[in-house]
């Protein structure tokens, strides 16, 4: 399967999953309000960090070793044993400190937290195995199906009046479903690992664990710090703005997930320099979706947040900043992905260390001084710092060129799209009352996306070639 098609399958699957999550979040926001969503966001933030403690980079190590193609069953079995033991340790720790956990969140959630942590740990492990087997095109739809199961369970339980408990139980059910289906797809049969298999995983994980912290720091450290400074309501609004921003980063994630096993295999067979073309592709298309998303999100921030309810409109200030942070971060992630793929997790370790320290310090200082806007600013600045460091290390070991011209074309198309969307909003807004806000936003987004991709198709030969090369069949008269 061609890499572009794999990325598209991943992206389309994530689009479907995000659409499900988007609709579910709207329902929860309007039914339960921002305070309950704030409690839920705090629980998921704790899950993010506790699952890191329960994996410490092991899932990334499993993907790397399995992707190399040798003794796969032994590595998967070793990874399962390690994750099981670490997960049990985390569960015991949460149980012992359940009173402190409940006090931080503001609700009695410790027992649910344990179940979610275990479900997420094993779901992450088996998803990493699927990626290691080069089955990204299967892992992605399964991830969407998992989200569908989770959302269906959550909505059903909320309808029955379970509120926050329903959200948490539904989350567990989605994770359990993903684990069962992953094992069934792989038809996995355990094979007894040796000490060498554990050592090999450790050799990679001892550096890649900081990469796990990097992702978790970027995703959740602002929520964790906000939990100490602001009440649950604003946290709920901020988490919705962040979720909306993450929707735009799906294509960047699709590229990094699709390219990692290919880079890893090529680098293992040849040398690190042989992946330079893939690195340039990753940078050229990493911002394909999020670039116009930043322009559109800035122009429509108030109306986008109003979809969730009037109480969420206050999040319009942080939404553009968070999208900008994700745009910077997606390029950073492609470069770190490259370092890990060429088996230089030590360099990714250093780059991640700089990013993490910067992010944590800035979040504490700026949230203390500026509140939730400070959290968004801290996220953007730390992403920029991380990008500079990652570029320094990646460019020193892989001879790639920055695709400046291609990125400039994306910005040209996005700015043209923004001008059209702005004009359409000014013309159409007086005729659209609040009850039709969602329909108005969907119409503007659809028109804007059409203008952006049509413009880019005309001005970018690289984009045209990529599209035509990855179509399932030849389309006559399509220019290249």
UniProtKB/TrEMBL annotation:
CC annotations in GO: plasma membrane
InterPro entries listed in its UniProt record: Poly_Biosynth_Transport (IPR050833), Polysacc_synth (IPR002797)
Membrane topology: Multi-pass membrane protein
Keyword Glycoprotein (UniProt): no
Keyword Repeat: no
Subcellular location: Cell membrane
Keywords, in A-Z order: Cell membrane, Membrane, Transmembrane, Transmembrane helix
Transmembrane segments: 6-29, 36-58, 78-97, 109-133, 153-186, 223-244, 282-300, 312-331, 351-368, 375-394, 438-459
Domain of life, per lineage: Archaea
Record's protein name: Transporter
Organism name: Natronolimnobius baerhuensis
